[in-house]
Amino acid sequence: MGDFGWPEDESVVKRRVVCGVKTNDRFNLGLILGDNVYLEGTQIDDYDRLDRVFAQSFPATTFPFDFLAILGNHDHMGDVYTQSLYHLIREPRQYDYVFILLHHHINDGCGPHRYVPHGNPLIEWIRQSRATAVINGHNHNMQKISDERRQRIINAHQNGSTAKNVAEYETLLSSTIQNIIKKYSETGRIFIENRGGQLVDENCGLSLKQIYQNVATRFDITLSKTEINNYFGQKHSSLKAIHIIPNRINDPNTICKRNPFAHSFLRIEENYPNEQIYFVDEGRSSIGTPSILRVPNIRSRNVSVFCAMNRYGVVHKGINSRPYNFEAFLRRFLKRNLWAVKPKPEGCPLTIHVYFCPHNSELRFQEIRSLRILGHTTGARERITCSRPAVFNQVIGLIYTTEMQARSRVDCAKSSMLPKPLLLASQVGGSSRLQLCCDDSGSSSYTFRVKSAESPGADGSTSYSTVK
After folding, report:
1. What residue ranges do the domains of the chain occupy?
2. How many degrees, rounded to 5, is the angle at CA 132 between CA 127 and CA 138?
3. Running DSSP on this structure, what letter comes out for residue 44?
4. Segments in 134-237 forming alpha helices (H)
5. Cα separation, 332 vs 315, whole angstroms
6. Mean pLDDT of the chain
7. Which of 98, 276, 335, 449 has the least C-beta neighbours within 10 A?
8. 288 — phi, psi (to 5°)?
9. Cβ pair 208, 225 in contact under 8 A
10. InterPro entries of this UniProt entry (predicted)?
């Protein structure tokens, strides 16, 4: 049986059917084929309703045999674990039968819920394997009458047999025989028609224009594109295409690229002690929480967190009321975090490697910054390699502005003067060299020498312009 999911007090039909069949054929096993509880399955731990559906509908005193049940699509709308526990057979020694259960996904190989243009492969598979029995639940793919059988019914009726006589030797209902005969007398057609919807099911990537042209060509019916689109809207269907983005995170090529990238960190660890290695990043959400959070429709600040840490803990952290882009990230990194770390010995260089990883599925780790800022007693020299020329000048300005702050011991009150040399540095050409020439007297005046991009003079000397 299938689709009987009402309790006994709501539907007494199923008990009458089982009693009637049992009177004619003394079976000793009941198979329940799905949709056991209407309309939306079983609630969590709602064993009372299951008891009403099964035990009260088929009491053991009247039906002294086993009922084996599987779950249907309506059962899967509810809590499947409650039904599974209700019917659970826990040990192999309790198994009496071996069944192959085929549900919706494999049954989609033939109708009625899906059009298959090249026949019914599931029916052909069952014919070839010579299955002992075919048991159907709420997907009635096997219950259609074959075209050969329809032809035989029509021939018998034309030879003078009545619908009742044909139903007896065909073991079909009289109403089914009458419907076949009636359809033949009205349309002259013996074979069953295919269901609609084949056009879109054959190719779900058709556009509105293509559907419009196909309908006009196949059926000689002219419909507007708006009418076709409205019909899809009524069926809750959409013609929007879905593009599947391949996941390359664990692609073999990606794994090969990841290996040398990981070893590059080991080389850094060999050259520098642990206390000189820092890991810097910014984030916007707590661990284990989504990056996008639904909040009330009110205007609020966008808070981002900046953090630098080494193996021994967090060295510096800061909160920004705006999101970080690349320039803001680098500005905060160079202005604050470089000088918040433990001071280094005089003349000892501080080397920073900044890695950039784009936010997509491809692993393209690439060293785009190698900043080497010397100690303040050795003088400021440009040590930067950059693969993004658009921000090259800004990076130079940030480096020299930060170096000025370290060399001249500028305190917080004087740091407001820093945007001027930053602006000056950002105007330097791509091949020019900006030199800092100042002493350690703490003066608030700075002298820059800008190397000309032109060729050297006749005597081989290099020309400079001095700006205070």
Report:
1. 12-136, 144-193, 196-244, 252-287+299-372+392-400
2. 80
3. T
4. 147-158, 163-170, 174-187, 198-202, 208-219, 225-234
5. 14
6. 63
7. 98
8. 85, 0
9. yes
10. Homeodomain-like_sf (IPR009057), Metallo-depent_PP-like (IPR029052), WH-like_DNA-bd_sf (IPR036388)
**Which band of pLDDT confidence, cut at 50, 70 and 90, is reported for residue 337?**
very low
149 and 171 in contact (C-beta within 8 Å)? no
d(CA 108, CA 120): 9
Each residue's pLDDT tens digit, 268-291: 777 777 777 777 766 666 777 766
The number of CA neighbours under 13 Å toward the Cβ of 227 is: 6
Angle ∠(198,200,201) on CA atoms, nearest 5: 60
Structure tokens that stand for 330 in this block: 């680098």
Q: Would you list the DSSP string of 74-104?
A: HHHTS-HHHHHHHT---SGGG---------H
Q: Is 109 left (phi over 0), alpha (psi -120 to 50) or beta?
A: alpha
What is d(CA 466, CA 9) in angstroms, rounded to the nearest whole number? Answer: 100
280: which 2 tokens? 């810097």
Rg (alpha carbons) of the chain, rounded to whole number: 40
Tell me the H-state helices in 360-463: 392-407, 419-426
Amino acid 59 reads P
